[in-house]
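Need residues for this backbone.
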């Protein structure tokens, strides 16, 4: 199995609990680049996924695929492919397997992205509208990808309004050879609104023999525990709550190990966030990812939930405001962003010290 929910695949999880479910970092475009995935791994994520890589783009030599697909230090990770038909997806799957072996462990197929630019071209959640047996039905795609690669293949789906229909889809994906399935408990039309429906995921878990990974609205210890009690899933995937906050994996692992949330002072929480941000910048720089990342936006995500976050965001916004980067080469962009990173880190440090003064323990 590409992840092992009984024996922690990640020593950073700090848990010796043999029954700990696996914690996954969700694939997120413009977020889960190799540097962020590595920091999430260091914080205790058992498994991480790349941003989606478009099959047609990859098959035509998209140079960005390489930036999205590699992994730092062989951490356990999967590559996600998005596409509209089984032939293109299967070809790209074989290509990424060859390009990123032996570090990549799994090929995941995106069957849930609801964003119109994606669905309009028949990709993502549009696949779930295809007739069973057609070339672009999720089961056809999984079978074809399984035939084309040696790695395990997984699917990430959303739900339909009709539970039975969702269960039939999940079953067809299992029968087609998927090694696991991730279910985001929202319909395509819900996008990210409303509450994720974990009841239907519980039903899918009962019907399927392959591991089921729950996704949608895991934000803290309480939501994780509720989802675990209700569904007994093999893994829990965290998306938005991990953006700018990879430390969520440390907190959830602490909870899984000790049965209660970790009590941490505000200044320590702040200092931890600064440390995670520095690590993130360090890996962005080390692996030449700075030209591909809007670090101003990413740094602002790291202010989420911290005291003085608004002030910090305004200060970060003001940095290098007048620099026109439109005609920069990659080298110039990297230099500019590297200088920006140093200034952003010092803003975080300044406010971290202020937090220690204002909130004495
Ligand atoms: C910024 C952003 C980018 C995303 N990109 C992808 C993607 O590339 N592939 C994918 O399958 N899902 C993508 N998603 C959906 C997430 O993987 C996840 O299914 C969703 O956010 C629900 O989980 P959550 O409630 O924990 O956030 C994205 C979500 C966000 C917020």
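Answer:
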């Amino acid at each position: 199995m590409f992840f092992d929910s009984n024996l922690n695949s990640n020593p950073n999880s700090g848990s010796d609990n043999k029954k700990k479910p696996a914690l996954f970092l969700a694939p997120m475009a413009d977020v889960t680049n190799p540097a962020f995935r590595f920091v999430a791994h260091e914080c205790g994520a058992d498994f991480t996924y790349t941003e989606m890589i478009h099959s047609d783009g990859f098959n035509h030599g998209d140079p960005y695929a390489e930036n999205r697909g590699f992994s730092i230090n062989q951490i356990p990770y999967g590559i996600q492919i998005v596409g509209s038909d089984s032939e293109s997806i299967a070809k790209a799957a074989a290509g990424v397997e060859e390009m990123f072996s032996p570090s990549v462990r799994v090929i995941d197929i995106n069957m849930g992205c609801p964003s119109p630019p994606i669905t309009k071209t028949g990709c993502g959640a549009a696949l779930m509208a295809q007739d069973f047996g057609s070339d672009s039905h999720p089961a056809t795609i999984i079978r074809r990808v399984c035939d084309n690669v040696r790695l395990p293949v997984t699917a990430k789906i959303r739900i339909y309004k009709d539970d039975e229909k969702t269960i039939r889809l999940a079953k067809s994906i299992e029968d087609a050879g998927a090694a696991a399935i991730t279910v985001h408990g929202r319909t395509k039309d819900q996008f990210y609104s409303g509450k994720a429906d974990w009841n239907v995921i519980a039903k899918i878990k009962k019907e399927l023999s392959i591991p089921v990974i729950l996704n949608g609205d895991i934000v803290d210890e309480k939501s994780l525990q509720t989802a675990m009690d209700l569904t007994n899933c093999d893994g829990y995937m965290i998306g938005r709550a991990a953006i700018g906050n990879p430390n969520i994996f440390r907190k959830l692992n602490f909870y899984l190990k000790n049965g209660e949330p970790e009590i941490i002072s505000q200044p320590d929480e702040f200092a931890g966030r600064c440390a995670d941000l520095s690590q993130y910048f360090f890996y962005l720089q080390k692996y030449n990812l700075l030209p591909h990342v809007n670090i101003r936006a990413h740094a602002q995500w790291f202010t989420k939930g911290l005291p003085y976050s608004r002030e910090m965001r305004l200060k970060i916004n003001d940095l290098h405001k007048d620099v026109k980067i439109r005609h920069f080469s990659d080298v110039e962009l990297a230099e500019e962003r590297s200088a920006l990173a140093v200034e952003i880190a010092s803003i975080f440090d300044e406010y971290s010290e202020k937090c220690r003064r204002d909130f004495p323990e």
